[in-house]
Amino acid sequence: MRLRKNINCLSTNELHDLREAFQGIYDLPASNPRSFVTIAGLHGNPSPSYCIHGNTGFLTWHRAYLMEIENALRSIHCDVALPYWNWSSGDTTGLPDACSHATYVNRNGDTVPNPLYRGPKPASAGGGQTSRRGDIDTTSFDDLAEDAQGAMANTVWNDFVSALNGVHGSVHVRIGGDMSSVPTAGFDPIFFFHHANVDRLWANWIAANPQSLPASEANAQLEPFTKPYSSDWHTGSDFETTTTWDYQYRNWCIFIPPIFWPIEWKFKIPFEPWVSLSRRIALTAKAPMMPRHSFELRVFIDSPKATDKTKTKDNPNFAGSIGVFGMGDAQMYMRPKQGFEVSLDITRSLRHCLSKKSKESLIKLVPVFPKGQEISEKEMSKLQIELEVQ
Ligand SMILES: [Cu+2]
Questions:
Q1: CA of 179 relative to ligand 1 center, distance in Å
Q2: pLDDT of 371-381, one tens digit each?
């Protein structure tokens, strides 16, 4: 399952992978069907212009298009998934930091051009590199976020699609430069993060308003995307669900900075109104290296006084524990060095606690060690905790 995350939530490593993957497809020759210039060009330049921006086919065509670029990126880094830029809600709807700087420091410590800042344009589109409006860094998208929330409130398919289509267009226009014109929009890499958000909103809307695609949508021919082993075009119904294509969106995530823990963490669910608690909410602990010592992380909800002595059995406020099996002395001899990532599904406990009162909950993590084997703060501080909502 591919997980498409908020671009602001990618780890440093994930961001490196994403940048290298974009650079990788920039460097492929136009004769390669996975090259950026070929895929970005399908949107509108060189002709024919394939993209569908009318009401019918808008969402399905672009879902197919995102798969095309995501698969190309994965030919460079096999586990990359396309992130989305959340311009439709939250505290930071503005341009993502990852896309805002002309250069970045790569894995080797060298300052190099940032592939997410601009993309290469073929001679047919004027050559050179893409650009955006001059004051893009201070351009606000907050009012568009409100419009997007309004679009999501529609319950009729056509009303929803045309409202979302309109807001999506405003985002293009507001970024300006190449993004503001159909033939060149696909050459700016932010195009794909923008459209991943459109795709995410569609997935959220359909979860809140379950229904099948209208016949005109289901039958729309999505040229130039062909069905496997066939010369027939894909149709809208092939892209009705994200599960067919084995991906999902993580709607929300937050990192707990390692220095703050063991922690009590007050957590307000900033859900977009249409996202219900029926979604899976998980707490993940990860570290770049298996720890030397074993420990358990017990997770309590709305129990500010919980300690390692607090009862867990039949305690509705106990959400579960994340057990980490230490490597002991073998840690030094591990080849290759292995990290770990362990998740705990806290949906049920959280729902139980939230149903009782406000939309705010306290999550407390209590580390429990085998007797006499407390872990040094230094070792614990390598742990990264992430809360994610799918
Ligand atoms: Cu678009």
A1: 8
A2: 766 666 666 66
Q: How far apart are CA 130 and CA 128, in angstroms?
A: 7
For residue 301, the domain's CATH number is 2.60.120
Same domain, 320 and 225: no
Q: Are residues 354 and 264 in the same domain?
A: yes
Cα of 53 vs centre of ligand 1, distance in Å, is 7
Cα–Cα distance measured from residue 6 to residue 165, given in angstroms and rounded to the nearest whole number: 21
Cα(59) to ligand 1 centroid in Å equals 10
* Tokens 């994200």 -> residue: 242
Question: For the chain, what percent of residues have pLDDT higher than 90?
Answer: 52
Q: Provide mean pLDDT across the span 107-117.
A: 96
pLDDT at 259: 46
What is the rounded CA–CA span in Å between residue 281 and residue 343? 10
Q: Are residues 238 and 262 in the same domain?
A: no
- How far does the centroid of ligand 1 lie from the alpha carbon of residue 198, in Å? 9
CA–centroid distance, 67 to ligand 1, in Å, is 15
Dist CA 224 CA 33 (whole Å): 12
Q: How far apart are CA 65 and CA 81, in angstroms?
A: 14
How many CB atoms within 10 Å of residue 84? 28
Of the three residues 221, 249, 277, the one that is the final residue of a domain is 249
If one compares 23 and 53, the residue with the highest pLDDT of the two is 23
31 Cβ partners below 8 Å, 6+ apart?
Answer: none
pLDDT above 80 for 358: no
Q: If you measure from the C-alpha of residue 300 to the centroid of ligand 1, how many angstroms do you get, rounded to a whole number?
A: 43
